[in-house]
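Example 3.2
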Amino acid sequence: VQREAAVPVSSRRPRPARTALLRRMSSELLAHGCPKEGLEKLDAQCIIWNVSFGGSADLLAAALFLRLLRESGFGSRAQDAEEAGSTNT
């Protein structure tokens, strides 16, 4: 079984032009509320360039999870008030 040589960490870093493009794509995503198709486009570009966000990916996952919670209304004051009103009847 032939093993592939490990790619040095320094060669995995994106070039300055790629970094600028990734920053622009990320800023546009945030400005537009992180639509799924935009995230998929960013993900596809990172795969093409073999770029990994590393620890930043964990933060992104947590941020998206919190966004989904907020959008679902989980823990919102309106939901809490509604539930409190239904238990008092």
